[in-house]
Write a structure and sequence with these properties.
The structure is a single chain. The protein is about 70% helix and about 0% strand. By secondary structure, the protein is mainly alpha-helical. It has one domain.
């Protein structure tokens, strides 16, 4: 089996809800993500409100929700790593923008957490902790409309957008964008937004 075939098999298993495959993927990706986050968190004021583990967990939780719902079509590990790096950069920029916009006093916010995300993902700091995304996925599915959930289910079943369009009606690209917007809305609601993930 080639590296690409092994990677696609791993993603297929993750998409199907295989906890072991998700744990394996996290173990492979988290060290590189944490290094990238640490480098990007250069400003000490930003480090007080954004920790590398928290950013990684948020990015990976967002990824697992979206991959399980069929949003991503990735063929190679480099594509996934690049996408996660973009998501990480965007998450840190979002933290920086919020910090700047609110002009917070760092003494007031020490010890505060992203309440919604902490409640859903948990505060354990081991690589496998973020993979407890089943509850998060269930919460995301509750926040989707019936039509959006149907699109997500078809994608999770491995159907291509033209096949979905043939079943539900509409244009493949329009349906893809509809699901993308729905997932953007829901992940923002849950505090997982990172934007420009593809």
């Amino acid at each position: 089996m080639s590296e690409s075939e092994i990677f696609r098999d791993l993603l297929t298993r993750v998409r199907a809800g295989d906890q072991r495959a998700a744990t394996d993927l996290v173990r492979q990706l988290e060290p590189e993500l944490r290094r990238a986050v640490s480098v990007r968190l250069g400003d000490p004021r930003l480090r007080r409100v954004a920790d590398s583990v928290d950013v990684c967990q948020s990015v990976l939780a967002n990824f697992f929700v979206r991959v399980r719902l069929g949003e991503f079509d990735l063929a190679r590990p480099e594509q996934l790593l690049h996408m996660l790096m973009v998501m990480t950069r965007n998450k840190i920029q979002d933290h920086a923008r919020r910090q700047q916009a609110q002009k917070r006093d760092h003494r007031r916010i020490e010890g505060q957490a992203d309440g919604d995300l902490d409640a859903l993902v948990g505060s354990a700091r081991e690589p496998g902790s973020v993979v407890a995304w089943r509850d998060l996925l269930q919460e995301v599915r509750k926040l989707l409309t019936d039509e959006e959930r149907q699109l997500a289910d078809h994608r999770a079943d491995g159907l291509a957008w033209p096949e979905i369009a043939a079943q539900v009606g509409g244009q493949p690209d329009a349906l893809r964008k509809k699901l993308d917007r729905a997932l953007d809305r829901v992940t923002a609601h849950l505090g997982l937004e990172v934007g420009d993930h593809a």
